[in-house]
Design a protein that fits this description.
alpha+beta
Amino acid sequence: MVKNILLGFASIALAVASAASSYNITFYQPVKINGSELKPGDYQLELKDNTAVIKQGDTVTEAPVTVHNKGQNYQQTAVRLNRRQVEEIRIGGTNTRVVFQKASSASTSNAATPNATK
C-alpha cells in the first residue's frame, strides 16, 4: 500500500517536471532563430538542457540557449526580436527567460520539404 502511494507521488512529480519544460508559443510575424525562418503561428517550445526545440507539425528547429530562472513571474509571454531574429522569450506565468545564443548553429528539419540544391 505504501509502495503504491509512493509510486503514485513519484509519477505525478515526474509528470509535473516534464510538463514544466514545455510551453506553447505564438509568433505573430515571420521570425528567425539562428538563421532558420519560422512562419507566423503556434509552436511548442521544449527546453532540453541548453537547447530550445521549437516544433510545429513536421518542422523542428533546435537552437542553443541559456535559461534564466529568477525574479518574479512574467505576466505574459513576450518575444524579444532584433529585426526578425529572436533574441529571447520570456514565458508568461513563469520566471523563465530563454536567451538564444548568437552563434549560427541552429538546425531545422522538415519531413515534408525536399533538400534544396545550390
